[in-house]
Amino acid sequence: MSIAALGCGGASRLGQAYGESESHSIGIVHAALDAGVTLIDTAAVYGTEGIVGKALADRREGLIISTKVE
Q: Which of 11, 20, 48, 65 could covalently link to 15 via disulfide, CB atoms 3.0 to 4.6 Å apart?
């Protein structure tokens, strides 16, 4: 397990807040996984759950995915 996580909210929301494409955001998730990140943090309110789902479609093994609702 890694000591780092990828947070999919915050000001950037995987680049979505800055008008980046969905494929760009998926690339961010893939880069994190390639770097050894095993914890992905998302939430419905971030608007990134769908992107995270697409990015992890074939790469879920060994990951911890955290999501939350209000």
A: 20
